[in-house]
Specification:
The protein folds into two domains: about 5-240, Rossmann fold (3-Layer(aba) Sandwich), CATH 3.40.50.300; about 245-365, Nucleic acid-binding proteins (OB fold (Dihydrolipoamide Acetyltransferase, E2P)). The protein contains eight helices and 21 strands. It has about 375 residues and is an alpha+beta fold. The chain has helices at about 45-50, 100-110, 115-130, 145-155, 175-190, 200-210, 225-230, 235-240; strands spanning about 5-15, 20-30, 35, 60-65, 65-70, 75, 85-90, 160-165, 195-200, 210-215, 220-225, 245-255, 260-265, 270-275, 285-290, 295-300, 310-320, 325-330, 335-340, 350-355, 360-365. A hairpin with a 2-residue loop joins strand 1 and strand 2. The mean pLDDT is about 90. The strands form four sheets. The protein has a six-stranded mixed beta sheet, sandwiched between helices. The structure holds adenosine-5'-triphosphate and magnesium ion. The site of magnesium ion has 2 residues, from helix 1.
């Protein structure tokens, strides 16, 4: 990674007895979209607010372009307006008594820029978010998506080095959210913006980010590229937060280096699996769980035979248009498999399941 723009070192924060953050560290490169992802209360907004200077931490440091802008130990705390960061909140925080253009002009007025320059920069920012035509309308009379874009234009107008976005799309309905997600990505790529993005929505995080930090209870669980976290999660928390997982209980049979044959419970068959990085293959006879993402299981009408094939019976089908979600009984387990749309007629049928060997991972019981 190129030189980092923002570096967060070992942040901790407590609110009375609540430990909101513990030892949170990450570094972000120029032009990167870095997302803090995690469930409600895990400390995402607190981290972002500390980076913005809206909150101080109990311990740790924040650096911007190599310069310390916050340090608990050295009592350094640069005020937010001197950090050159733009911030967009979930609630948009649009000023209701102003027009669209006045809203966007506000940060420039605070910085006492000449009037002509303000007008020009405001129109440029509004053009970026496709709201030029609405410049003189009253801001609160716009739709949710348009107000969202006003908030974005207001954060972009003074060309901050880093944009901080705290659940900026969560007030929008599903369709609009997906459209705005796409527009945000296009804008980010076009302008080479550096973003710290906060969300609890895994699909938003996977689709927008270059890297994600998954947080739980005030700590960073894992940092990595979206596909790295999705395919090679280091903890069950990360695995399950990022998507659906099928797990099958079993016992280790023959071990061969980093892989082992797992005999599934209930006579469901056996599978060859590798342990996740950093975890040793448990000894023969240990109880384990085998995990796989549902889309890595192929449904076939041919019977079993060959490695990593299991047989099962379709118990329930949920037709979704582009695919059919099937609940398949395999031994004692009922697992979710995504079949083709035509699988909607397969209820009560015996099927074969082919599990992609490279997608199988081994977990402690
Ligand atoms: N001003 C405050 N006073 C007391 N406790 C706070 C304050 N702000 C946050 N907390 C607590 O700190 C923890 C982290 O809060 P934070 O707002 O960072 O979570 P979050 O990950 O942004 O959650 P959400 O997804 O719900 O926005 C929570 O337990 C929260 O209750
Ligand atoms: Mg929050």
């Amino acid at each position: 990674m190129a030189e980092s723009i923002v570096e967060v070192r070992s942040l901790s924060k407590s609110f009375g007895a609540v430990n909101a953050l513990q030892d949170v560290s990450f570094a972000i490169g120029k032009g990167e979209v870095f997302t803090l992802l995690g469930p409600s209360g895990c400390g995402k907004s607190t981290t972002l607010r500390i980076v913005a200077g809206l909150e101080d931490a109990s311990g740790g440091e924040v650096r911007l372009n190599g310069r310390t802008i916050f340090s608990a130990e050295e009592h350094i705390n640069l005020p937010p307006e001197k950090r050159n960061m733009g911030m967009v909140f979930q609630s948009y925080a649009i000023w209701p008594h102003m027009t669209v253009a006045e809203n966007v002009a506000y940060p420039l007025k605070l910085r006492r820029l000449p009037r002509a320059e303000i007008r020009e920069r405001v129109m440029t920012a509004l053009r970026l978010v496709d709201l030029e035509a609405q410049a003189d309308r009253d801001a609160p009379k716009l739709s949710g998506g348009q107000q969202q874009r006003v908030a974005l234009a207001r954060a972009l107008v003074y060309e901050p080095e880093v944009l901080l976005l705290d659940e900026p799309l969560s007030n929008l309905d599903v369709k609009l959210r997906e459209q705005m997600r796409f527009e945000l990505k296009v804008l980010q790529q076009r302008l080479g913006l550096t973003l710290i993005y906060v969300t609890h929505d895994q699909s938003e995080a996977l689709s927008l980010s270059d890297r994600i930090a998954v947080m739980s209870q005030g700590r960073v669980e894992q940092i990595g590229a979206p596909d790295e976290l999705y395919d090679r999660p280091r903890t069950e928390f990360v695995r399950d937060f990022l998507g659906k997982t099928v797990t099958l209980p079993g016992r280790i049979g023959a071990v061969n280096g980093a892989s082992a044959r797992v005999v599934l419970n209930g006579g469901a068959g056996d599978l060859v699996c590798t342990a996740p990085p950093g975890m040793a293959v448990p000894a023969s006879g240990s109880d384990v769980k085998v995990a796989i993402r549902p889309e890595r299981i192929a449904l076939s009408l041919a019977g079993p035979g060959g490695d990593n094939r299991l047989s099962g019976r379709v118990e329930t089908v949920l037709y979704q248009g582009d695919r059919t979600e099937c609940a398949v009984r395999v031994g004692g387990s009922l697992i979710t498999v995504y079949g083709p749309p035509e699988a909607r007629t397969m209820r009560d049928r015996d099927v074969g399941l082919v599990l992609a060997p490279e997608a199988l991972t081994l977990w402690p019981k």
